Every structure is written in structure tokens, then in C-alpha cells.
Amino acid sequence: MTTTNWIKLEIPSDTRNVAFARTAVALFASQLDWTLDELEDIKVAVSEAVSNSVIHGYELQDGLVKIEVSYEGPELRVVVEDYGRGIEHVEQAQEIGYTRLPEERMGLGFTFMHEYMDEVLVSSQIDQGTKVVMIKRVQASES
Ligand SMILES: Nc1ncnc2c1ncn2[C@@H]1O[C@H](COP(=O)(O)OP(=O)(O)OP(=O)(O)O)[C@@H](O)[C@H]1O
Ligand SMILES: [Mg+2]
Predict the structure, then answer these.
(1) Among the options 48, 72, 75, 137, which is catalytic?
(2) Which of 4, 18, 30, 59 lies 20 to 30 Å from 72 when distance is taken between CA atoms?
(3) Helical residues (DSSP H) of 1-143, grouped into ranges
(4) Has domain 4-137 been given CATH number 3.30.1490.190?
């Protein structure tokens, strides 16, 4: 059996699809040998990235969110991409508690992604969109 596999999803930007994306990615990711806690971590990180595209990228208007998930051996890679408004200051956006909507939101989405995934890489261009690449590795099993 090969040790690589991938899926690509395209979903309309809609808050209803956040739960779908989270579950679909977790179902695919479960081909690897995670603990239940690790699978929960992946779900949270995916939810945060996809909801950011819906809420901030497209400001709850129509748009396309692309999700690619793949693994090579023990390394899972999740890419969430939108073609929305983009992020002006990518570093600042990832600071704990930073949000453009302080009345409504906590500014913790990126913090969770960094906490729960091994690597998080954010690239963005104003009015072009945002791409979040997240990597998580299966830990060598203890025996
Ligand atoms: N896909 C995106 N497109 C445009 N801006 C984004 C995107 N993702 C994040 N941002 C910007 O980065 C900020 C921080 O994101 P983060 O997810 O950490 O917090 P939040 O979404 O504001 O609050 P929370 O996730 O706690 O509900 C957002 O407020 C927004 O300004
Ligand atoms: Mg967020």
C-alpha cells in the first residue's frame, strides 16, 4: 500500500460548510495513526482556518474556499485557501488576541492553529486572497 494520499475540496463560502470541512478533513486524516486528541486538534485547526476564510476573507459574502489535504508517510498537510480580501499584516494577524473585529471575536483562531499543528505558514495578498498551510506529524508510537 502506498504511504501517500490526497483529497481536494472546493466549497462555497458559507458558515454551514465549516462543520462539513472539519469532519471531511478529519475523516481523511484518520487514515493516519492519530490519537483521538490529535484528531480533535486537526478538526479545530481546520475549523479556524475555514471560518477565517468565510468571516474575514469573504466577509460572509459569496466566495470559494479550497481545501487540499495530503500526507506523505507520517506528515499530514492541510492547505486552506481563499480569494478574498487578504491580510495586510500577516505577522500581526497571528498575534494572540489580534482581531479586526474586537467587539465580536477573540482573535484566537491563528493561536489555536499554531498550538494544535506542528507548522503553520500564512501567505496573503491584499484583494488576492489568503493561503494557510498547516502541517502535523504523527508521533512515533511508544511501545
Ligand atoms: N482568510 C483570511 N482573510 C482575511 N483576513 C484574515 C483571514 N484569516 C485571518 N484574517 C485576519 O487575521 C485576524 C486574526 O485571525 P484569528 O483567526 O486569529 O482571529 P479572529 O478570526 O479575528 O477571531 P477568532 O478566530 O477568535 O474568532 C482576523 O481578525 C482577520 O483580520
Ligand atoms: Mg478566526
Answers:
(1) 48
(2) 18
(3) 16-29, 36-52, 90-93, 109-116
(4) no
pLDDT at residue 116 is higher than 80: yes
Q: Which residue has the cell 493561503?
A: 131
pLDDT of 54 over the 70 cut: yes
All three cell numbers of 75, joined, read 506528515
Pocket, ligand 1, Cβ cutoff 6 A: 48, 52-53, 56-57, 82, 84-87, 93, 98-101, 105-110, 130
Return the ligand number nearest the Cα of 53: 1
Cα–Cα distance for residue pair 38/35, rounded to 1 Å: 5
- The predicted model scores a pTM of 0.96
- Stated as kind and residue range, the H or E segment containing 98 is none
Amino acid at 143: S
In sequence order, the β-bridge partners of residue 135 are 77, 119
**C-alpha grid cell for residue 50?**
475555514
Q: Which ligand is nearest to the CA of 105?
A: 1
d(CA 134, CA 69): 10
